[in-house]
Design brief:
By secondary structure, the protein is mainly beta. It folds into four domains: 106 residues, no CATH class; 125 residues, Intracellular proteinase inhibitor BsuPI (Immunoglobulin-like, Sandwich); 128 residues, Immunoglobulin-like (Sandwich), CATH 2.60.40.10; 124 residues, Immunoglobulin-like (Sandwich), CATH 2.60.40. 4% of the residues lie in helices and 48% in strands. Strands 18, 20, 21, 23, 25, 26 and 27 form a seven-stranded mixed sheet that branches. Strands 11, 12, 14, 15 and 16 form a five-stranded antiparallel sheet that branches. A five-stranded antiparallel sheet has the order 31-30-33-34-35, with no helix packed on it. The longest helix has 12 residues.
Length: 513
């Protein structure tokens, strides 16, 4: 195998995808500082070689420099056939080469590095009301700019959803980027998050906040506002909770939305939840803990306490369970959890509020309405069994110019909730790896005994037409990895029509051993 090593620049686009310009084209290029001793290497089958690379930093240099060492496989020289030699002609030739990149980030000692940045834009994308039954969600997008002199990876990004009238934070949305999290100095990065809970009709503001590890957070200077109409609120509730008693407008807000506690057998813990009245009149609130589970499509099901095996409803007491709230007012309630003997793994519940209008010191005669509050996850340390199985793995159909998506079914066969992590590897028809990506950060929790369908969007460079295979490996702690693979074909793009391209795929094999 003939290999050629050379230096390119290295940058990261706003969407997180890498780009490798020619050497010395970017401001912070490392190319002129790099010397590859042996740029042309011949490797025999199974042979490994260490290639020395020397970095020379000029005097008075400072800051960071970026680049990539490219290792490119040279095409095998073409030998003309005897007929081509006789006729002094050459047939058409297609030469294919492959290259892999070893990215380099060099920090110059003695530089006073400063991590800082700002949120330059916040936007909200609300799908039309009539498309909500297709499981669409409200998307929150924020753009963060690195204003320092060192690469950063912002952490704890979140969008705060504020009810304008009551001036209350009603939801906190994690903001993530599915690709390389690093942002070079002066560069921008797009982050996205999704509102996972229904909102009541009204006007809202969105504020994005990030932490870059400098000891303080960076919050957007300008809020973006949006309106939830009554029709949209109804569609959101039906999508998340189905057509049942919990699909009415949200009256009570709860913060945090997720309460996760670890309590040993026989132990006791307390957690607080702040409850606020998002209604325009005084209400009486009665609180309960009920059971929950999720359908494969993510729809939440609320059931009476004790219905599911891994319920925590009987372990939790609420203080106070009944109280009154004026419009826009808040109250802190305490959830006291006590674990009985013999318990193991994870147990779950949902805080549910039953509300009634309260005027002139008396309750309304109307039927109480229900709102959903925090999700409770109670884990008994040292007793968790984390196991799972892949139920399906297959590519989707895509449209012209769009990127492939993969549908992954995962069944939690253990005794505690888990968020599947793993890697998807795509190979071409020759068996060479053309792309690898980790499962995105928005993969949902899967409760014990539940199966969830996960959508993973391909985030690499555009794939040319051809046959491919994909393998997913999901891993969890000390247990054996579970695997599945499939094959798919990308056809040529139509040149004179807008008809969709199809990714023809078939699920090949699932290995859950």
């Amino acid at each position: 195998m003939h290999l050629h090593l050379y230096v390119t620049d290295y940058n990261i686009r706003q969407d997180g995808s890498p780009v490798f310009p020619n050497a010395n084209e970017t401001k912070d290029s490392i190319a002129s500082w790099v010397n590859i001793k042996d740029a042309n290497v011949v490797l025999n089958p199974g042979e490994r070689r260490i290639v020395p690379i020397r970095y020379t930093v000029p005097k008075r240099a400072k800051g960071e420099r970026y680049g990539a060492i490219m290792v490119e496989k040279k095409p095998v020289p073409y030998t003309r056939t005897p007929e081509e030699v006789r006729n002094n002609k050459l047939s058409g030739i297609i030469s294919v080469s492959y290259r892999i990149a070893c990215t380099v980030v060099l920090s110059v000692d003695g530089t006073r590095f400063e991590k800082k940045g700002s949120v330059t834009n916040v936007a909200v994308n609300i799908p039309p009301s009539d498309s909500w039954m297709e499981k669409q969600k409200i998307e929150v997008m924020a753009v963060f700019k690195n204003e320092g002199n060192i690469h950063i990876s912002p952490r704890r990004g979140e969008a705060l959803i504020v009810h304008k009238k009551f001036r209350k934070v009603v939801a906190r949305i994690p903001l993530t980027t599915p690709r390389n999290p690093n942002i070079f100095p002066g560069a921008l990065r797009s982050y996205k998050g999704y509102i996972e809970e229904p909102l009541q009709p009204g006007e809202y503001a969105v504020q994005a906040k990030f932490n870059v590890g400098s000891g303080r957070g960076h919050t957007s200077r300008v809020n973006t506002e949006f309106i939830i109409t009554p029709e949209l609120a109804e569609a959101m509730n039906q999508m998340y909770y189905g057509d049942n008693e919990y699909s009415g407008p949200t009256i009570i807000g709860a913060d945090p939305q997720l309460v996760e506690v670890k309590v040993p057998v026989g132990g006791f813990r307390s957690s607080s939840v702040t409850v606020n009245n998002q209604h325009e009149e005084p209400i009486q609130v009665q609180s309960y803990i009920k059971d929950l589970q999720f359908q494969p499509d993510g729809e939440m099901q609320i059931m009476e306490s004790g219905t599911i095996e891994r319920s925590c409803a009987d372990w939790v007491s609420i203080q106070p369970a009944k109280f009154y709230l004026q419009p826009g007012a808040s109250k802190k309630i305490i959830l006291r959890v006590r674990i009985p003997d013999g318990a193991d793994g994870g147990h779950y519940g949902k805080l549910v509020f039953e509300t009634s209008p309260f005027t002139a010191d008396k309750l309304s005669d109307s039927e109480p309405e229900t709102s959903l509050g925090s999700t409770l996850m109670v884990v008994i340390p040292g007793t968790s069994k984390i196991k799972g199985a892949i139920t399906n793995f297959e590519p989707s159909l895509i449209g012209n110019g769009k990127i492939p998506e993969f549908a992954i079914g995962f069944n939690n066969t253990g005794n505690v909730h888990m968020r599947p992590t793993g890697m998807i590897t795509i190979k071409d028809y020759m068996g060479d790896v053309v792309h690898e990506q980790s499962l995105g950060k928005n993969v949902p929790f899967v409760l014990p005994g539940n199966t969830r369908q996960i959508k993973e969007v391909y985030n690499g460079e555009e794939l040319p037409a051809g046959k491919y295979s994909a393998m997913i490996v999901i891993n969890y702690e000390d247990e054996t990895d579970v695997k599945a693979d499939c094959k798919f074909t990308i056809t040529d793009k139509p040149t004179t029509t807008d008809k969709p391209i199809q990714v023809a795929g078939d699920q090949k094999k699932v290995n859950n051993s």
